[in-house]
Amino acid sequence: MDPDLDAFRNVVERHQAGLFALVRNLGLDGHAAEDVVQDAFLSVFRHRDAFDPGRGSFRAWLFGIARNGARNALRKKRPTPLATLPDSAAASRGEDAEAGARMDAAREGLSPEQRAAFVLAEIHGLTHEEVAAIEGVAVGTVKSRTSRARERLRHAQRGAAREAT
Fold first, then answer.
1. Is the pLDDT of residue 80 over 60?
2. Contact at 8 Å (CB) between 43 and 65?
3. 11, 26, 112, 141: which is deepest, by most CB within 10 A?
4. What is each CA distance from 89 to 85, 92, 93, 111, 123, in whole angstroms?
5. CB of 71 within 8 A of CB of 24?
6. Average per-residue pLDDT in the chain?
């Protein structure tokens, strides 16, 4: 068996769930998310010689490729017609579903830059330095973006708690 294919299979098995979660958290779902993840892995395989460990971790490089793919897909994404939106009563069953929907809406209300920094750092556990390398900004910028995102999400959560009482 080809050692490159074995190594690639290990990369896919190790990072597939994380990449899929990343692109979903950035605003893609279903087939669009699957396409972005698959394209990211194909890009990594085709350009594996381009990875430079001196510029950051492999994980940060891989997540950066997926993040770029998700951003490109989101630019092309068309708004969902109202006729295809789920019935709100059927879509939210119980308080947990409602709280989750509010948090999803709050996360979607973040700027793309805040959402990317928050998802990469807080959900996927990348360091501020890794996120800065992926985003091409200073570490302080990443810190302020994640801080602002956390504050907006906390504010949305507090508002939801007040509505429930």
1. no
2. yes
3. 26
4. 12, 6, 7, 28, 29
5. no
6. 83
Tell me what pLDDT residue 94 has: 55
Contact 116, 81 (CB under 8 A): no
| pLDDT (tens digit per residue) in 3-49 | 778 888 999 999 999 999 999 988 888 899 999 999 999 999 999 88
Give dist(CA 57, CA 53) in Å, integer.
6
**Mind spelling out the 3-state secondary structure of 67-78?**
HHHHHHHHHHCC
Question: What is the C-alpha separation between 45 and 37, in angstroms, rounded?
Answer: 12
Widest pairwise Cα distance in the chain: 61
DSSP string, 92-153: --HHHHHHHHHHHHHHHTS-HHHHHHHIIIIIS---HHHHHHHHTS-HHHHHHHHHHHHHHH
Quote the pLDDT of residue 81. 46
Kindly state the tokens that stand for 98: 């409602």
Query: How far is Cα 67 from Cα 115, in angstroms, rounded to an integer?
Result: 11
Compute how many other C-beta atoms are within 10 angstroms of the C-beta atom of residue 130.
22
Look up the pTM and report it.
0.64
